[in-house]
Design goal:
Layout: E1 15-19, E2 25-26, E3 30-31, E4 54-60, H1 67-80, E5 87-91, E6 99-100, E7 103-109, E8 119-125, H2 134-144, E9 147-151, H3 168-179, E10 192-204, E11 211-222, E12 228-233, H4 245-248
């Protein structure tokens, strides 16, 4: 399943959020109420034209890679913002469509260009209660009962995404969406057309008798962008499309109208 900005993730995917304080993790794998206060929930930027009233930043398990990769990404994120990585929080059960204290919860794919293509938001639709009110405290308590927490030494307990792996065509489409997201001034979905895929000569792997398949992907026409083409290799052990090493070592300028892309 290919996702575009604002789409709801597939059933079985898992939303998770980095915890940056030891106090956010309570005994028994519970999330402390402090994790749901302060900057946890924010109103979306007016320019984003989102249909929900508040959002909490996180990531999708299906797009975040292995536990080693998402751990490394979390540490990089925390270093960037001068904080520390203490663990992750995630829903105990499917929450899309759940109503907590008159707010409807959902999850939406909201990739960040050139930063995080796995980014997604936990969204809240309804009358957002003001902090330090009785209504807000009730919402926090309901959230505490709906989420689990794990520490950095328990990353293997983060649930995997229980969804059907995307097909090659869907992975290619996802890579194109990440490369050509909609412009901030546009509020209609990105329209892609004439995505042309064809076999490309394979390169031999570490063993002479094993070739790694390649495809040439051409974006012939795109709304708000320019045509480009890529050469990608068959998925690696993590299910990610590869970029041939000979091309990856070349500077972008040397490619001319061609650009490197990875899934």
């Amino acid at each position: 399943m290919s996702l575009a900005d604002g789409d709801r993730p597939a059933d079985g995917d898992v939303w998770f959020r980095v915890l940056t304080s030891q106090s956010h993790i309570a005994k028994g794998g519970r999330v402390n109420h402090a994790a749901f206060k302060g900057n946890f929930m924010r109103a979306p930027k007016p320019s984003s034209n989102r249909p929900w009233d508040a959002e909490a930043s996180g990531r999708l398990r299906s797009l975040a890679g292995t536990t080693e990769q998402l751990t490394a990404d979390a540490e990089t994120y925390c270093t960037r913002y001068s904080t520390k990585f203490f663990g992750m929080m995630f829903p105990k059960r499917p929450l899309a469509g759940t109503v907590l204290e008159s707010l409807t919860l959902d999850f939406r794919y909201t990739p960040i260009l050139n930063d995080d293509i796995a980014h997604a938001d936990l969204t809240f639709t309804g009358n957002i209660p003001t902090e330090k009110t009785e209504e807000h405290e009730k919402l926090v308590l309901a959230l505490v009962e709906s989420f689990s927490a794990i520490g950095t030494g328990q990353m293997e307990l983060l649930p995997p995404a229980n969804i059907k792996p995307p097909s090659l065509a869907e992975r290619l489409h996802q890579a194109l969406i990440a490369a050509f997201p909609k412009r901030p001034s546009e509020h209609t979905p990105l329209c892609l057309s004439d995505e042309r895929k064809s076999p490309s000569p394979s390169a031999q792997g570490p063993f002479d008798h094993i070739d790694r398949q390649r495809w040439q992907v051409e974006l012939v026409r795109v709304k708000g962008g320019e045509p480009h083409s890529w050469i990608v290799e068959a998925c690696d052990a993590q299910g990610r499309l590869g970029l041939p090493a000979a091309l990856a070592d070349q500077p972008a300028a040397a490619e001319g109208p061609r650009r490197a892309a990875t899934g």
